[in-house]
Structures are given as structure tokens and as C-alpha cells.
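Moderator note: this is an archived Q&A kept for reference. The question asked for a predicted structure of one protein chain; the sequence and the answer are reproduced below.
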Amino acid sequence: METQEKIEFAGLSLAVYREIAAHLRQVEGIEVGLISQASSEFDYNQSQIGGLWISGIPNSGSESQQRVQQILAYYQNRYDV
């Protein structure tokens, strides 16, 4: 069964979100999109983007699911989010 997840990393720039999305799209069967920022108030410390949505993640334990988790962990560690 496929699931759709919303991923948010507070304070990351649009460019980094695009990099994460491009990286995730390399995993077979995974679809990724950007979620627009919902806040109407501009805050320089906030990201320009609300997050990512990811779909096509297969059941846990699969190679694709593990790869997605590795990619997300890499960016969490790299940007300390």
C-alpha cells in the first residue's frame, strides 16, 4: 500500500527543498512535490516553502523506503533540522 507523507524542515531555503526533491525523485517509484508556504506574514527566518509531499513510498522494509529514509536523514543531519 502506498502512502503520502508531508515533510517539513523548518527554515530551509527553497533551493535546498528543490535539491531534496531532486534527490528523492531518483528513487524508483517515488513522486515528490513542493508545498507552498501557507503563512500570509513574511518572516525572513521562515522558509519560502511549506514543505514537500512524497508519494509512492512502498511498505516499510523495502529498499525504496529505506533509501527515502536515508536521503531525508542526510539532509536532517546536514542542515541540523
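Archived answer notes: Helices lie at 14-25, 63-79.
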